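Pipeline run #58 for the internal structure catalog. This entry was flagged by the ingest filter as a single-chain record with no existing model, so it goes straight to prediction. Upstream metadata was stripped on purpose; only the residue string is passed forward. Reviewer on rotation: M.T. Logging verbosity set to normal.
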Amino acid sequence: MAVFDFKKLSPKNHFTKNEIKVLFFILGVGGIGIGANLFSSWQSSQNKQFEKTNIDSIFTEIFRTDSVEKNILNSSDSVRSSYLKIESKTTKKDELKPGSININNASLEDLKRLPGIGEKIAERIVDYRKSVRKFRSKEELMDVKGIGQKKFEALKEFITIK
């Protein structure tokens, strides 16, 4: 293997030995970058078609027309039941009527229907009722950890004290 003689090149081009090393390094890194870019372009052109899964076929069929809900309800049983489950979860808080939840005797499930109230806060409300006392006013609900002014404002129209 022949070793490159820097002394022969240096006087002709007026570059020092270190300058030539830096030049070769820059050219080498640039060549590697160009090669990687060309390889990436070639690879992406080879994989233009992705693998279509079963769920992709369902979504393609559902969203093909403007009437999405009509397509869902006319589709297979599994798609229809999944849609109805999702729809029931998203509308459960919308079904609440003003003053419909009595916080002094509501169950955990009823309390979780309130906006911003999950499992933990519902348990804290029940614990407060049992350990401290029943609520005397709606505002007393803010004494429960996790219910501040903002959360209280969002749910106060749905609660009542009886």
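catalog note: The CA atoms of residues 6 and 12 lie 11 Å apart.
catalog note: The longest strand covers residues 101-102.
status: ready for reviewer M.T.
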